[in-house]
Please model this.
Amino acid sequence: MSGGQQPGNWAGNVTFSAARFHQPASVTEVRRLVAGSRKLKALGTGHSFSPIADTTGDLISLSRLPRVIAIDPDRGRVTVSAGVTYGELAVQLHKAGYALANLGSLPHICVVGACMTGTHGSGDSLGNLATAVMAVELIAADGDIVTLDREASVVQSEFNEPVFNGTVVALGALGVVVSLALGIQPDYDLRQYVYDNLPLSELDEHLTGIFASGYSVSLFTDWRGPIINQVWLKERVAGADAANPRPRWHGARLADGERHPVPGLAPVHCTAQLGVPGPWHERLPHFRLGFTPSAGRELQSEYLVPREQAVHAIHAIDEIRDLVAPVLQISEVRTVAADELWLSPSYRRNTAAFHFTWIDDVNAVMPVLGVIEERLAPFLPRPHWGKLFIASAGLITEQYERLPDFVRLMRHYDPSGKFRNAFLDTYIPNPD
Model:
């Protein structure tokens, strides 16, 4: 690969096939590269496990663009440039007295990449991270800058409706996104508790209440027995209200010390627990910003099903636990609110997300994915675009009713297919 070296993604399971790798230092350089390329994709922090960012042409990293974090209190927005991570953004927002509604479990991921792939946190009433997006600034195929704004979204004649909701979770198919504006709110505090060994049987009657018991709730299990190893319960702190956790809760026991989600690992890199209040950005993620994630030690998959099917899906996976557990590090189950973003895995349905962190062995993991997808098929799963999955294009695309509209949107912004790649050709085929 000429013009620099970016051999693969963060985990090392994807080797990029780009002919050239670029690290532009300005938007002007990005525009020049886009205008002069026949095939091009943009790369954030490279945390996707799927080949969604691969290309046979020009691959550009946005990590060297000037860092911009511009807070607009009057409009309740913050504008961030491509390459900015949630950790960087959160620290600056907190200093200014503002916050985001939600964060993912890892603050090291880039804002633009997370939103473009529908990445999410956890919370019954909280949409995925892209639902905070208020404006998108992208470089279109001809090198021009295009700005789309939720509040000023115009009706395009060929759609007879505003198309903003089609431009947010866009998989890099419409252009190179160089900045996003996100909605913000006043700063707030959270505290979190961990409960150990929740009996799986408790979920049959109480799963809805368990997920509704906190601002953000995650269930962790290694699928080695009929238990949820840990429940991470995050609560918003209202004023000076006193913490009053229950020692026993649905058969689970309040943890007597801090925990790491993966059995046997020390919790030193995890965010503070034991009910100690702290700023939103130091409690919503599971891992501390100062922790540098190691590469090449894991693979990830995630499937989102309608929330009302969550209990059935849990039992479907539990029935194959002997197959899943040997290749698994940990699995997380959490909830995400419905949204209107065309390609969001939570489009128009409240969801339960089943996340799997696997061992770093593709040959061992991929056959297990096939069985999981077969068992979850009755519940209409939508895979996370940036994780590993093997479902056929037909099974994926039939889950998205706005897919034909998105294809028309791609034709509008990228008529020559400059931003298409093998991943998009497979899962969002252009009929022409």
